[in-house]
Automatic annotation (TrEMBL), chain A:
This is ABC transporter permease. Keywords: Cell inner membrane, Cell membrane, Membrane, Transmembrane, Transmembrane helix, Transport. Pfam families: BPD_transp_1 (PF00528). Residues 72-260 form the ABC transmembrane type-1 domain. It comes from Ancylobacter radicis. It comes from the Bacteria.
TrEMBL record, chain B:
Belongs to the binding-protein-dependent transport system permease family. CysTW subfamily. This is ABC transporter permease. It holds the Pfam family BPD_transp_1. The lineage of its organism: Bacteria, Pseudomonadati, Pseudomonadota, Alphaproteobacteria, Hyphomicrobiales. The chain crosses the membrane at residues 34-58, 204-228, 235-258, 286-306, 318-336, 342-364, 385-406. It is found in: Cell membrane. Its main location: membrane. Residues 200-406 form the ABC transmembrane type-1 domain. It is a multi-pass membrane protein. Keywords: Cell membrane, Membrane, Transmembrane, Transmembrane helix, Transport. The keyword Transmembrane helix applies. InterPro entries: MetI-like, MetI-like_sf.
Length: 275, 418
């Protein structure tokens, strides 16, 4: 199937080896994740195949244990507000930059993207010192602001990408028909860039939802997030509850992925009708 | 002409001027409007992100302990020529300062700061503190010398004087395994304190191995994704992206469960009689590079894939029809065109690998910890914030230089997600 029709037998064999190699790489990519999921349903607290028996006890622990439940709650709160801030500010900035007349836009863009590049430990330590001076350590607000910073580059990138295919005459047409800038934005621009904004928001959400290093430095036990709870669990002794938490997170990520894919298709469709 | 138009204040020139001014004003307004959209995020990033990092950089040369705690001693040392043990004046001022530091409980802090440069100084300061607490008056010089003969050392006082400066290169020099002796000359640090260059080499070496591994694993996969019909390619793309959106902690957990000595992989190796005893696969370099490669693989694949996608299939066919063998066609026609993608993917993975902390901390041994680990260690455990900041500053510098190269070669605005 891969080899072109004019391929010699030796070339066909090469393609076979190539396909086999790629299969192994795909196995390497998803294998580890697939292997731990069934272990979370094991009835015994050790990690062996075949499973000694099936049970939901680790999920019971995950969903009803006070510490895990609190962690889930904290993660949701922090990720929600961090996403809100990152998406709002990031979308505005992308809209401004895409108008093409901002001075020093190259430099500004590099600064806005840099939270994605700077090693996260440096961000965490710098904020740990900086936030201590203004009393933001060990508060929800501090953690939310830090996670919002880490999420903004993704929003800027995705919204900017959507805006490159955006036809500017549409907003001009809206303005010439009497719409105020706000109305034009709300009824013309926003619906068209919505897929980009949403996928940026999802990336920002995942960033906060998975973030552990900043949480280790800035959060007190009161703001213990899900990754932080997992981190201390892995450090001490991996209990099967962690595999249950991991499975929960994988399914969560898969659902987000599917949403992203649907958005991508929708965006392609929209662009198809515009072109 | 523009000058003429601006100067003319009568006749048809007036209209042209006002039109031009109007246009310029409208453009300026428009620019201001665009900028006002960008400004909130820019201010947010500058205040919450760039400012703290800037303060951290300042902290890497900051030197407040001695200046704040021993002000009188520093004044007295100003006139000291550095050739012989300071006189009674310096020791009296020092005794006066120590009375205050004993009251503020900062003697140990000053001692700790001097101890970085003069091993053993901390206990000497604590002993001097007890001497002060014992009471009695001067003359102090003989009392200090009787308490510990090292108080008579000229080199010691030279270092004290230097430690009272506004800034110190000490932390940055130590991060590069360098030291300054009493005269200020810079040389290599003592062997037992020279740990940092090795850590930087190790960080770069691990990042390089991870980058190479992702390239070897990722290049063929990117090629496969690029030549398959979109329907199949999208399906396989999900396999690349699913790990991409799965938490790093989840993937690290998976590797621990798989690789630990009573883990799944060792069970399988034993059951299949491939090995006779359990193999150490984790908490070493192998486990670290493996887990990091797994996490970074999508970052390398995606940029290569997007470049390969833009190479027309006809190029290979043309090369073949002109007589090139399959290998020649691939190596001399296809591969050179994929280089921008290879550069982008590898550089991205290398930059991101430099900053790894969580994965080596969980699946590596003591010999696999990277710079980030030591930044965290010196912040949390050693409480040596100057050292943490200096290590962070050097790591940041390396990262930003590579980021600038990436920006020049690829353009950060070309980065696509998913």
């Amino acid at each position: 199937m891969l080899a072109p029709s004019y391929a010699t037998p030796r070339e066909k064999f090469t393609y076979l080896v190539f396909a086999l190699y790629c299969t192994l790489v795909f196995l390497f990519l998803v294998g580890p994740i697939l292997v731990i999921m069934p272990l979370s349903f094991s009835s015994e607290p050790w990690f062996t195949y075949p499973l000694p028996g099936l049970s939901l006890r680790w999920y019971e622990d995950f969903f009803f244990n006070e510490r895990w439940r609190e962690a889930l709650y904290n993660s949701s709160i922090v990720a929600f507000f961090a996403t809100l801030i990152a998406t709002g500010l990031g979308t505005l900035a992308a809209l401004g930059l895409s108008r093409g007349n901002v001075p020093f836009s190259g430099l500004i863009l590099s600064i806005l993207i840099s939270p994605m590049i700077v090693p996260v430990v440096i961000v965490a330590v710098a904020m740990f010192f900086g936030f201590a001076a203004v009393g933001l350590n060990n508060t929800y607000l501090g953690l939310i602001l830090a996670h919002a910073i880490l999420g903004t580059p993704f929003v800027v990138i995705t919204v900017t990408a959507t805006l490159t295919g955006f036809d500017r005459s549409l907003t001009r047409a809206a303005a010439s028909l009497g719409a105020s800038p706000w109305t034009a934005f709300r009824t013309v621009t926003l619906p068209l860039i919505a897929p980009g904004v949403t996928s940026g928001a999802l990336f920002a959400f995942v960033t906060s939802w998975d973030e552990v290093v900043v949480a280790l430095f800035l959060a007190s036990p009161d703001q213990r997030t899900l990754p932080r709870q997992m981190f201390s669990g892995i450090r001490e002794q991996i209990s099967p509850t962690i595999t249950a938490a991991a499975t929960f997170l994988v399914i969560f990520a898969a659902l987000l992925m599917m949403t992203l894919e649907l958005l991508r298709r929708r965006s392609e469709r929209l662009r198809g009708t515009l072109a | 002409m523009a000058v003429a138009a601006l100067e003319g204040d009568a006749g048809p020139g007036v209209d042209r001027t006002s039109l031009k001014t109007k246009l310029r004003r409208a453009e300026r307004l428009n620019r201001a409007r665009s900028f006002s959209l960008v400004a909130p995020l820019l201010l947010f990033v500058l205040a919450v992100f760039a400012l703290p990092i800037g303060l951290m950089l300042v902290r890497s040369v900051e030197n407040t302990e001695v200046r704040d705690s021993l002000p009188r001693t520093m004044v007295a040392l100003e006139s000291w020529d550095g050739t012989a043990t300071p006189g009674e004046g310096v020791f009296a001022a020092f005794a006066e300062d120590l009375v205050q530091t004993q009251k503020d409980r900062t003697t140990a802090l000053v001692g700790k700061r001097i101890n970085y440069e003069v091993p053993g100084a901390r206990s000497r300061f604590l002993k001097a503190g007890r001497l002060i607490d014992a009471g009695g008056g001067g003359p102090w010089k003989d009392k200090f010398l009787a308490n510990d003969a090292e108080w008579g050392s000229v080199d010691f006082w030279a270092i004290m004087k230097r430690a009272g400066g506004v800034m110190t290169p000490y932390y940055l020099l130590t991060s590069l395994d360098l030291r300054q002796d009493a005269t200020g000359a810079v040389s290599w640090n003592f062997a037992d304190q020279s740990i940092f260059l090795e850590i930087f080499y190790r960080t770069i070496w691990i990042s390089f191995m991870v980058t190479l591994a992702t390239l070897i694993l990722g290049y063929p996969v990117a090629h496969l994704l690029a030549i398959l019909p979109p329907k199949h390619a999208n399906m396989l793309m999900i396999l690349v992206l699913l790990p991409f959106t799965t938490s790093i902690l989840v993937r690290t957990t998976a590797w621990i469960v798989l690789l630990q000595s009573n883990g799944v992989l060792n069970d399988a190796l034993l059951a299949l009689n491939i090995t006779t005893e359990r193999v150490q696969l984790i908490f070493n370099r192998f486990g670290t590079v493996l887990a990091m490669t797994h996490i970074q693989l999508p970052f390398t694949i995606l940029p290569i894939y997007s470049v390969m996608k833009s190479i027309p299939a006809s190029h290979l066919r043309a090369a073949r029809s002109l007589g090139a063998g399959p290998l020649t066609a691939f190596v001399s026609v296809y591969m050179p065109q994929t280089l921008p993608g290879v550069g982008a993917g590898c550089l991205l993975t290398f930059i991101l690998s430099l900053g790894y902390y969580i994965t080596p901390a969980l699946v590596g041994g003591p010999q696999d910890q990277m710079v980030s680990y030591f930044v965290a260690l010196y912040t949390n455990r050693e409480m040596n914030w100057g050292q943490a900041s200096a290590l962070g500053a050097i790591l940041l510098l390396i990262t930003l230089v590579l980021y600038a190269v990436f920006n020049r070669l690829v353009g950060i605005d070309k980065v696509k997600l998913g």
